[in-house]
Amino acid sequence: MSKKKIFLWVGAGVFAILIILGIILAGNTLHKSKQANEAKDSYSEAYNKADKGKYDSTKKLEDKAKDIEKSGSKKEKKALKNAQDGKSKGKSKDKSLLDKVYPNKDEVYGKYNGINRVSLDDVRDFMDGKNGTKGQYQRVLDNYSTGSIQIPSINTKLPIVEGTSNQHLLAGATTFRPGQSITHGNYVLLGHNVGYDGMLFSSLPQIKKGAKITVNSYADGKMMQQKYKVTNKETVKASQGQVLDDTDDRKLTLITCDAPHETPNRVVVTAKPI
C-alpha cells in the first residue's frame, strides 16, 4: 500500500474518531442539560409549595420558642436567646432545649468551612435518593423549608431552607444563622454554584445592580413578603467572613462561589428593602 493511501486511511480513521467523540460529547451535553432542567423543575415545584405556605417548619419552631418565652424557666429562656443569637456552640446542658427549638441543630448549622463542593450529579442523586439519600430531599423540605426566594432577572426560583449544611444546600438557598428574620438585621442566604443557569445560585454572578428580589419567609408567626433591590455585588475571598455578620440595618445578603469548581472566591450580593 502506498504512503498516500496509508495517509488517507489514517486521516479517515482520525476523522471518524473525532465524529464519534463529538456525538458522545453532544449526547452527554444534552443529557446534562436535561438533568439540569429536571432539577430546576423540582426546585420550582418546591418554591411554589413554599410560596403558598405548605411548608410551615419555621412557624412550628417559632411557636415552640414563644412557649419558652412565655412560660419557660429562666435557664430555658437564656438557652433560647443563645440559640437565636447563634451563640449556643453547644453547651451540653443546653442541647436538649436547642434540639427542641431547632431540631438537629448540629446537623442543620454545621461548620461553614466544612461545606462540600457539589456537581449537577450530586444534586440529581440527592433528589433521586441515590447513594444513601433516599427520602432525604423531601425530608429536608418538609422539616426545614422556611419560605422562598425569586430573582426574575436571573431566572432563579428556590425554596429557602433553615440551616447551612451539605444536605440543605442541595435542597435550596439556606439561612446562615438560627433565628434569622426578614424583619430585622442581615438576612443571609447561601447557595451552590453548579454551573447551570437558574439552578441554585449558579446565575448569581450575573446579577446586575437594581435587580429585584422577592423573599417570602415566616416571621412573627406568619408568612411575610419582602421585596429587595440589589445595591451592590462584589467578589471577596472566602476568608472574609464579615459579610456574614449581623447588622443593625435591614438588608439581604446572597453568597455563592464565583465558579462551579474549587475556588477561594465568593460572590456577595447585597440588597436593600424597597
User: What's the SSE pattern?
Assistant: HHHHHHHEEHEEEEEE
Structural class of the helix and strand makeup?
A: alpha+beta
Average pLDDT number: 80
What separation lies between the terminal Cα atoms?
A: 79 Å
Number of helices: 8
Shape: elongated
CATH architecture: Beta Barrel
CATH superfamily: Sortase
The total beta strand count reads 8
Backbone CA Rg: 23 Å
CATH topology: Sortase, Chain: A
Topology of this protein?
Elements: H1 3-51, H2 57-71, H3 74-84, H4 92-101, H5 105-108, H6 120-128, H7 136-144, E1 145-151, E2 156-161, H8 166-171, E3 173-175, E4 186-190, E5 212-219, E6 222-237, E7 251-257, E8 265-273
Helix pairs in contact: 1-6, 3-4
Structure description:
The structure is a single chain. With 274 residues, the protein is of the alpha+beta class. It is built from eight helices and eight strands. The protein has a single domain, classed as Sortase, Chain: A. The chain is 41% helix and 22% strand. Residues 88-95 have low confidence and may be disordered.
Task: Provide a concise account of the structure shown.
By secondary structure, the protein is an alpha+beta fold. It is 41% helix and 22% strand. The chain has one domain (26-273): Beta Barrel (Sortase, Chain: A).
What are the key terms here?
274 residues; alpha+beta; Sortase, Chain: A; eight-stranded mixed barrel; 8 strands; elongated
